[in-house]
């Protein structure tokens, strides 16, 4: 069951213009027809909430309408269709794509992945005790350096029954639990990726069902800090961050959004294979982050010029 | 007595109210955030509903976080609801009561204020904990 990860998230919104502006300011590339793409072609798709081509809403607009998973090949689509049709309605698209609902009622689509191969530079580090990664005269940072979301990393869902939701993804779609916040929810990794998680589930009351956040991977912690600083300077509201998570080790910075969920910048996530033994911990400030900062205006120690001119 | 200075956020020493903005700067269907005590973020917001102007604490009853997703963006696209863009709570704009989302039945804190001589006033002292 070679599911790679989310290819696209489709939202039905009440303020299409605001969402278009938001995702462009976030750094995604408008590709037309409501698509906002990362470097590898993974994307967010914005539609008006009353668009009749959308699957039914599971909450008031704005809200997620479809979660699109990329899979490795057509054989995986056939395997998925066979597995899911055992106990639920499965629809097929002209291209072989598979449509079905998960056990929480989220509308899923599976397709042969749209992810394009791409290359982009790493953030090279000079660490004493280790050979330098950035040789003489190579600069680490530059004002105005380009930061682009590289790939759709993960989506986080509020679900009314976390154990049932986990069982569906583990038993039916062959996801593995990498780590788990006991009583709250699991971090899940599909078979086709080594990323710590592409899905995290959070137990909530039924009326909160929906997306809590999604994020695209940036290239480094520095990129998370720089992109978030620029985003905040455009007037967007920081919700949580910047900081660094413990489970997954990824840098994070979450912002409010007009899509009906938070949108995160993340980078530098741990990779795992099937040898990994899941950690189980209660969720809390100390277990969810190594550190947390709050952005502040730029400042310089000598302070502002003296009032009344120079002396 | 000299006329009050037309500076938003200005207040006379000892006076328990704060000037926010001219009322014609508050358009129907839009909201506006204010930081009257210089806390570094907008701690309150105001919106016009018909002839009335309402002022609310920018503090969602669900998790105590700011509501807007961007400067002054507190409302649904049609201007009829206040939305918390953190976890999707929908509030009735007239009453501040949460009608959808995680804090259903709870309310935004409405703040005292009013319109006088074309200005919107907040009837709280700048030292109010709500403004920090």
Quick summary:
Chain A contains 5 helices and 18 strands.
Describe the structure.
The complex is a heterodimer of chains A (311) and B (132). By secondary structure, chain A is an alpha+beta fold. Chain A has one domain (3-117, 149-292): 2,3-Dihydroxybiphenyl 1,2-Dioxygenase, domain 1, CATH 3.10.180. Helix content of chain A is 16%, strand content 34%. Chain A is built from five helices and 18 strands. Chain A has helices at residues 16-26, 74-84, 162-172, 221-233, 285-288, and strands at 3-13, 29-32, 35-37, 43-48, 63-71, 91-92, 98-101, 107-112, 151-159, 176-182, 185-189, 199-203, 210-217, 238-245, 251-255, 262-267, 279-282, 289-292. Chain A has a ten-stranded mixed β-sheet. With 132 residues, chain B is mainly β. Chain B has one domain (18-127): Rieske [2Fe-2S] iron-sulphur domain (Rieske Iron-sulfur Protein). Chain B has a three-stranded antiparallel β-sheet, with no helix packed on it. Residues 1-6 of chain B have low confidence and may be disordered. Chains A and B meet through loops of A and loops of B.
């Amino acid at each position: 069951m070679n599911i790679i990860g989310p290819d696209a998230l489709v939202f039905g919104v009440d303020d299409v213009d605001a969402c278009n502006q938001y995702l462009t300011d976030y750094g995604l590339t408008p590709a037309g027809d409501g698509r906002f793409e990362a470097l590898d072609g993974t994307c967010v798709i914005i539609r008006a909430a009353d668009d009749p081509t959308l699957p039914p809403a599971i909450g008031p607009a704005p809200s997620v309408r479809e979660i699109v998973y990329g899979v490795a090949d057509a054989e995986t689509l056939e395997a998925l269709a066979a597995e899911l049709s055992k106990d639920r309605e499965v629809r097929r698209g002209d291209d072989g794509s598979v449509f079905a609902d998960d056990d929480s009622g989220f509308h899923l689509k599976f397709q042969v992945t749209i992810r394009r191969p791409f290359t982009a530079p790493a953030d090279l580090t000079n660490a004493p005790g280790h050979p330098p990664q950035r040789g003489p005269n190579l600069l680490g940072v530059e004002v105005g350096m380009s930061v682009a979301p590289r790939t759709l990393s993960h989506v986080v869902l509020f679900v009314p029954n976390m154990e049932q939701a986990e069982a569906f993804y583990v038993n039916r779609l062959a996801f593995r639990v990498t780590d788990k916040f006991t009583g709250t929810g699991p971090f899940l990794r599909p078979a086709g990726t080594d990323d710590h998680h592409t899905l995290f589930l959070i137990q909530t009351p039924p009326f909160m069902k929906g997306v809590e956040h999604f994020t695209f991977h940036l290239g480094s912690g520095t990129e998370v800090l720089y992109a978030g600083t620029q985003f905040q300077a455009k007037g967007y509201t920081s919700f949580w961050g910047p900081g660094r998570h413990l489970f997954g080790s990824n840098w994070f910075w979450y912002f409010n959004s007009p899509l009906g969920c938070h949108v995160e910048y993340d980078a530098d996530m741990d990779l795992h294979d099937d040898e990994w033994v899941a950690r189980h911990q209660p969720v809390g400030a100390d277990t969810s982050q190594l550190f947390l900062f709050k952005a502040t205006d730029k400042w310089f120690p000598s302070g502002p010029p003296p009032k009344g001119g120079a002396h | 007595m000299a006329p009050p200075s037309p500076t938003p956020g200005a207040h006379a020493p000892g006076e328990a109210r704060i000037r926010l903005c001219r009322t014609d700067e508050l358009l129907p269907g839009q909201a506006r955030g204010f930081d009257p005590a210089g806390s570094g973020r907008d701690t309150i917001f105001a919106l016009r509903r018909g002839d009335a102007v309402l002022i609310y604490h920018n503090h969602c009853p669900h998790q105590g976080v700011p509501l807007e997703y961007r400067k002054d963006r507190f409302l649904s696209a049609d201007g009829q609801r206040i939305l918390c863009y953190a976890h999707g709570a929908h509030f009735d704009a007239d009453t501040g009561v949460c009608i959808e989302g995680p804090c259903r039945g709870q309310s935004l804190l409405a703040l005292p204020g009013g319109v006088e001589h074309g200005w919107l006033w907040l009837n709280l002292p700048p030292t109010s904990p709500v403004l920090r």
